[in-house]
Amino acid sequence: MKERIKSWVLALLVLGSLVESYYLIYRLPGSDSAVFSENLYVKTDNMGPEEKVENLLFPDKMIIHLGNDKHTLFYPSSTFYNLILTRLKGRSFESFQRRSVQSFNWDKIRSENPGIELSFRSGIPVALLQRVMQLSPDSLFAGESVDRIWIYSGKNDSKAHAVFFSTRGDIVYEAAKADLTVQDVQQHVDFGKSWTPYATSNGSYYVPESNLSLMAAELPSKLYTVEQIQSSLFFDSGSTRYIREKDGSEIYTDSKRSLQVDQEHNWMSYSDPTALPAGESTNARDVLEAVDFVNQHGGWNGTYKLEAAEESNQDRIVSFQQYYGSYPYGAYPVLDQPKLHYGLIDLRLQQGTVTTYERSLMYSEDDKGSKKIVELPGGDTLRRQLAGISQSSAIRDLYPVYLPVVKGDKLELTPVWKVDFSNGSSLTLK
């Protein structure tokens, strides 16, 4: 009898628990439901895989100084670039000393001392550089951004020098403790002895003494649909309103956020002016926030590199540049153009929160394309071209890029030289 009573009591307790759970989940009639029905839930339709920030942080080029005023360059994804960068990531740098950039004779170091120069064209915050290199910065250095790392050894030096250049231009930080020997530096430099020689007059840019072999490609191209874009940006894309502007652009809005689609240039711009500030904002934190945002709202359709994290009218603009190419020929940036915005992802942040997100609607299918090896001019041919365009403004940098051209349903990527001038302008040379 007692056992039967216990069973009934236990059954009542279980039934009461189920009823209570029902009301907790679905609530009483007239109140907001805590569960969304299947027809309201929209699964995010990614345009590419997520990416770790560490994979977006790498030098745009590696300059090898051989001594006797001889040099060569390695580019991302090329054989010795990968080898040297992997080795440097395993070394530690500590006890940074702040010095004036003028306290070094860089022309002499460049021409006489074997060394490795890593270039980060627009700079990288030290707080992010720590994610890919073993640095132990003090609070002052940790707040800096650097655009170059120069590791070299002198003739009578017993240890290697490692100097980090602040993007401000007047300050460098030298690591008093660097886990590199003179022999390590020489071994890395020796990789460049049989590579294409380069010449420079002042270290601003380098000209190859012979033509460069690069890979050209013709790839099938497609466009992400508006539905894909909406589902990656709006929780309920079915609640958005459609507006067509006079210039032909399309706007989709849920009254808080808006998505503008430019079908002519295959470009999208998403804006969320109501986004709540995250609080404290720094270069490094904003880059991390930007990477997380892209991971959650679209993903990465290819190889990208952090290009810039710059302040603009109290906002911060974070840009990622797409690179194309692979081992052993190297990877190079895809040129963004006014009439074909391709290969660039831009985000604007206010107080640590993304308020604007822009990217191309176009993507290519690399595994289905055709490729061939072409040559970019070097030596005297290239020098004559540079001499003819440098009369009005000094050349600041010279590097290979891919020029994208749409032909029907194909995307052609053609290697060209990009010339950056000191006045901020640029042009391309074939």
Automatic annotation (TrEMBL):
Coiled coil: none
Record domain Regulatory protein YycH: where: 3-422
Protein name as it appears in the record: Regulatory protein YycH domain-containing protein
